[in-house]
Amino acid sequence: MRAVIFANGSLKPPVALNNNDFIIAADGGTRHCLALGLRPAVVIGDLDSLTHSDLQTLTSLGTEILQFPTRKDFTDLELALSHASSLGMREVLILGALGARWDQTLANVALPAAFPELNIRLEDGNQEVLYIHGGETVSISGSPGDTLSLIPLGSEAKGITTMMLEYPLTGEDLPLGSTRGVSNVLLADTAQISLHSGLLLCVLIHGQSDQIGTVN
């Protein structure tokens, strides 16, 4: 079973869910669920973004509500990820994680690094954010011409080998802060990325080909 977490950022279509997805709403992400006619299995957070009417609707739907104090050490999204992990989930899709506040957006993009036991993916319209941990080989599905950027997160990403990308890497390293991996291009429906150590943030943009690649 996959956990789908709705955060309180902007939500762009399309939103494609499976029938057996376990839906978790991180506080204000509840409104996205209700607007889509979805019943979250769990709502978690300090609930400062929800009205009394929202809570009544959730109660009538049989949603489990896990309320935390407003003065807490974790964001609502981190609480949602911790809950998904505690339930034994291993695959997590996060929707609505990006928005106008840079601090929240950057924190949400970096947050999956704290949950190496989870296979986490963020979606925002035609864009996806995926994570590759050291020792993993990951297949990334898209279409020829899609843009794929590889960005080191936290430290140097070492021993990167790619297949079916226009600008290949063969056992190479990307230092933290390097833009060398930005704007690569898929050559087939599936590309493969292997990483020896470190953490890679991968941004896949469907339907957009940036022919000015920075990998050489």
Describe this structure in words.
This protein is an alpha/beta fold and 216 residues long. It has 2 domains: 2-125, Rossmann fold; 130-205, Jelly Rolls (Sandwich), CATH 2.60.120. It has 4 helices and 14 strands. It has helices spanning 29-35, 52-61, 76-86, 102-110; strands at 2-6, 22-26, 42-45, 64-67, 91-95, 119-124, 127-133, 137-141, 147-152, 157-163, 172-174, 184-185, 190-197, 199-205. The strands form 2 sheets. A 10-stranded mixed β-sheet has the order 4-3-2-1-5-6-7-14-9-12. β3, α2 (52-61) and β4 (64-67) form a beta-alpha-beta unit. The longest helix is centred in the middle third of the chain and has 11 residues, at 76-86. Residues 209-216 have low confidence and may be disordered.
Low-confidence stretches: 209-216
**N-C termini distance:** 40 Å
Just give the CATH class of the largest domain. Alpha Beta
Tally of DSSP helical segments: 4
- Which superfamily, in CATH terms, is the homologous superfamily of the largest domain? Thiamin pyrophosphokinase, catalytic domain
Order of helices and strands: EEHEHEHEHEEEEEEEEE
Q: What share of residues are in beta strands?
A: 25-35%
| CATH architecture type of the largest domain | 3-Layer(aba) Sandwich
Tally of structural domains: 2
**CATH fold node name of the largest domain:** Rossmann fold
